[in-house]
Structures are given as structure tokens and as C-alpha cells.
Design goal:
heterodimer, A: alpha+beta, Ubiquitin-like (UB roll), 5-stranded mixed beta sheet, globular, B: alpha+beta, Aldehyde Oxidoreductase, domain 3, 3 helices
């Protein structure tokens, strides 16, 4: 799956996107995996959109989905 | 000139172009909101801002807000343009125009739109100060989601 990163997450991960081969995975499990692989990442307060739709923590992400990690927004 | 109603641009926004999109013979009122870059926030001096967006989703969310507005105020037409990239003090960050037959709906819908932008549109600003910088929304206590998510229940299927 493709993971899109924005704002402070993009800077912390040092990339605007990641490609991960994780198969089906819930948002909660994906967060655990990311925190394991990237020790410095802070996913507190981060919202998730899958294929541009907001989803909850128990949403099951498919292998070919595009997952966006969205810090609290600050437009306007 | 972009004739779409819901737009992100890295170019300066011309408010009249946004207004023109909602002008029509049925309208008796057009409200125009212009959001600009403020220099001082709680005594701290901002030098400039950077706006970053998840562009495709941001446009989809602006379009969704437009639909919410039509559902709540059926006679309104709205247009929103949000800037991205580098902005200086007093630059225009967002312009919202709403037209309606009568002014009350145009005022209400316009305020609703800016509040919703701050809740559900994936745009982030980074403030550059004299002594550092920070992504806003990342600050504790600012724009936090009290329930761990924004007010978007109808978005989750």
C-alpha cells in the first residue's frame, strides 16, 4: 500500500510517501507497525483517509489502497 | 482563470474572480470572506507562512462542503479558493463567496464554510517565526480533535 505523509509527518519521516507491503491491515495495526519501524514518528492525533475518505481506527485497509496520514488540519 | 467553484491555487487569489462565479440574477446578496495572513498571534510575530495540501482530497472536501451548504441553505451558491505555498503577511489565504436571494443565508453559509474548512479540509500551514517554525495544528491545545477525530461522522461509511 501507498502511505502519503503531510506537514510535520512528512518532515519527520523524511519522505512524502512510503510504499509498504503489509497486506490487509487495520488502521490501529498499521499505526503500531509504523511506530515500530519509525521510532521517532508521532502519530498521536493523526487522522487517516483511505482513498481520500476519512476512516476509523478499526477500518481494514486493503493491500492496494492509498492511505493518507493527516495531522490536525489548519487551513483557512 | 479557473471557472471551477472549489479550487486550490499556488497563485495570488483575486477576490472578484471568486465573486463572479456566484453572481446571478436570482441573487440579492453576495457575502465575501477574505482570509489573510496575520502578523501577530498571541504576541508572536509571524514572518511568513507555508501552506501544504493533499490537493485531490482537499478539492473533494471543499466540494463536499459546497454540497452541505446547498443542503442547509438550498438557494445559495458558493465558491471557495484556497491558496497553497509561500504566503507573506496580509496575503490572501482563502476567499469564500456565497450568493443567495436574501442576505441572511449568504452570511450564515459563508461562516459555516470557513468553520468546516478548519475541520475537514486537508490543508496545513507552517508558521515561520523569528526564532523557529512550527506546523500549526501540531501545537498542543490548538485545533486538536476532542474525540480523536473531526466532525465527519457522515463521511465514514
Amino acid at each position: 500500500m501507498k502511505i502519503l505523509l503531510f506537514a510535520h509527518l512528512r518532515e519527520e519521516f523524511g519522505a512524502s510517501s512510503l510504499s509498504l507491503d503489509l497486506g490487509e491491515i487495520t488502521v490501529t495495526d498499521l499505526f503500531e507497525e509504523l511506530e515500530k519501524r519509525y521510532a521517532n514518528s508521532s502519530l498521536h492525533q493523526v487522522m487517516v483517509a483511505v482513498n481520500e475518505q476519512f476512516v476509523n481506527r478499526d477500518y481494514l485497509i486493503q493491500a492496494d489502497d492509498t492511505v493518507a496520514l493527516l495531522p490536525p488540519v489548519s487551513g483557512g | 482563470m479557473n471557472s471551477a467553484l472549489y479550487v486550490l491555487t499556488d497563485q495570488p487569489i483575486l477576490p472578484e474572480e471568486v465573486t463572479d462565479k456566484v453572481k446571478r440574477r436570482e441573487a440579492g446578496a453576495i457575502t465575501l470572506f477574505i482570509g489573510t495572513v496575520r502578523e501577530l498571534t498571541l504576541g508572536k510575530r509571524t514572518l511568513y507562512l507555508e501552506y501544504e495540501a493533499y490537493t485531490s482530497m482537499a478539492i473533494a472536501q471543499l466540494t463536499r462542503i459546497g454540497q452541505e451548504v446547498r443542503d442547509r441553505w438550498p438557494d445559495t451558491i458558493s465558491a471557495i479558493t484556497h491558496r497553497t505555498g509561500h504566503l507573506e503577511i496580509s496575503d490572501i489565504a482563502v476567499v469564500i463567496a456565497v450568493s443567495s436571494p436574501h442576505r441572511k443565508a449568504a452570511y450564515e453559509a459563508n461562516e459555516y464554510i470557513i468553520e468546516r474548512i478548519k475541520q475537514i479540509v486537508p490543508i496545513w500551514k507552517k508558521e515561520q517565526w523569528e526564532d523557529g517554525s512550527e506546523w500549526i495544528g501540531d501545537q498542543s491545545g490548538q485545533n486538536a480533535y476532542p474525540d480523536g477525530k473531526p466532525l465527519i461522522d457522515s463521511d465514514i461509511e
